[in-house]
Amino acid sequence: MSSDYYEILGVSRDAGPDEIKKAYRRKAREMHPDVSDDPDAAAKFKDVNNAYEVLSDPQKRDMYDRGGDPYGNGGMGGNGGFGGFGGGATGGFDFTNLVDAMFGQQSSRGPRPRTRRGQDALVRMGLELAEAAFGVTKPISVDTAVVCPRCNGSGSEDGSKPVTCNTCRGAGEVTHIQRSFIGDIRTTQACPTCNGYGSVLPNPCVECSGDGRVRSTRTITVKVPAGVSTGNRIHLANHGEVGPGGGPAGDLYVELNVAPHEVFKRDGDNLEMVVKLPMTAAALGTELDIPTLEADLPDADAESKTVTLDVPAGTQSGTRIAIDGAGVPKLRSGGRGQLGVTLLVQTPTRLDDRQRELLRQLAEVREETRPEGTVQKHGRGVFGRLRDAFANQ
Fold first, then answer.
1. Does the annotation place 191 within a ligand binding site?
2. 304 among the known binding-site residues?
3. In the chain, where does the domain assigned CATH 2.60.260.20 lie?
4. CATH number of the domain at 265-391, please?
5. String of b and e for 283-309 (b: at least 16 CB within 10 Å)?
6. How far apart are CA 373 and CA 371, in angstroms?
7. Is position 168 annotated in a ligand binding site?
């Protein structure tokens, strides 16, 4: 392979640092002995590494451009064997760069900031059906990170400023050298002394241990719009976890869970209920005062808490009568769904002598003393409503 470092990486002599790094990653992926099938892959990979070691360092690159060779051996390394991997911290192989090259990722470089945005938080709120249908404003307790009240987020006990870490010299990371059969391998990790910040707090806050935030339970008032259902989420910006160093708070998401109702069953924007009525009322027809969902609201008008249902004569068990505009308000749009009332006709089980005689006379008049049952074909209409009605009892 050519000893011209620019030619090895495939870049021009005026290539910038980003272009050189991108070319190195591409070549490293192609030439790495564990990836390439080329029998000379090890030697070519050594040349790629040497070329990058020189061209990525401004001083070495300037020396090379002036006709010199930082390695003193035509760019082929001065350690023998896999020359570009030896030579201590300066001429050694940076394992982090290899990982970046192999997986197309770029590791973070330099210290991380002490002040960062906090994470988003998720809490759950339980609602009654009426609260979900008509909306409600109610408080909720949230356990999240808040700004430390002692240091106001600075992390310092006496308000002092952070000082440069003596271990990493402000770099936020340290390099370890490990010897292997291919030479010295360097790995870079966050500085254990400053945890990657590049600086340390000389007198950290005793309340938050220098983090600038503490855990606390606070109460937030949540406004729930009308028409929500289980699984809907309310987004509250800047009400989540406060970030490290007193950084800006993340967002809070309130997930809603609507409890089942003992009378009404919700079906989208519709409400369904089952009403039992006597056999005679179903035969003769009647009017029923049906409770509405507004009956669960303590401040609702008395007139809105019931609605009159007109039951026509001859109503059969399983009949559903719909009342428009008495269901759940539609979320993000006007109007309301239906209130569906399924009627169950009750046959009397306890009769006195007079009632039994009157029914016997009615049967004789209707010629039903020995009726023949009528076989009905299966249908999803009446049978389906009856099945649902009995299931909701």
1. yes
2. no
3. 121-159+204-258, 265-391
4. 2.60.260.20
5. eeebebebebbbebbeeeeeeeeebeb
6. 6
7. yes
Q: How far apart are CA 236 and CA 250, in angstroms?
A: 9
Residue 379: predicted pLDDT: 58
DSSP structure class, residue 244: G
Strands (E), the chain: 93-94, 121-127, 136-147, 163-164, 173-180, 183-190, 199-200, 213-224, 233-236, 252-258, 265-267, 270-278, 286-291, 306-311, 320-329, 336-346
Residue in the block written with tokens 């006990």? 157
Asked if 183 and 92 count as a contact pair (C-beta separation under 8 A), the reply is: yes
The answer to whether 330 is annotated as binding is: no
- Judge contact between 318 and 343, C-beta under 8 A: yes
Residues in the chain: 393
What span, in angstroms and rounded, lies between the C-alpha atoms of 227 and 127? Answer: 12
Q: What is the pLDDT of residue 308?
A: 95
- Nearest-angstrom CA–CA distance, 240 and 252: 4
Is 178 annotated in some ligand binding site?
A: no
Query: Could you tell me where the DSSP H helices lie in 167-272?
Result: none
User: Any binding-site annotation on 268?
Assistant: no
The pLDDT value recorded for residue 187 is: 81
Residues 97, 49: Cα–Cα separation, whole Å: 10
Q: Are 163 and 202 in contact, with CB atoms under 8 Å apart?
A: yes
| pLDDT at residue 261 in the model | 96
Tell me which CATH homologous superfamily contains domain 121-159+204-258.
Urease metallochaperone UreE, N-terminal domain (2.60.260.20)
Which residue has tokens 């009632």?
Answer: 355
Report pLDDT digits (tens) over 274-294.
999 999 999 999 999 999 999
| Residue 297 pLDDT | 94
CATH 1.10.287.110 segments of the chain: 5-103
Query: What pLDDT shows up at residue 181?
Result: 64
Q: Mapping DSSP to helix (H, G, I), strand (E, B) and coil, where does residue 123 land?
A: strand
Q: Is 194 annotated as a binding residue?
A: yes
The answer to whether the annotation marks 61 as part of a ligand binding site is: no
Residue 233, token pair as written in the block? 């989420």
Q: What is the per-residue pLDDT across 119-133, written as a single tens digit (0 to 9) for each?
A: 999 999 999 999 999
Fold of 5-103: Helix Hairpins (1.10.287)
Which residues of the chain are modeled with pLDDT < 50?
1, 73-94, 100-108, 383
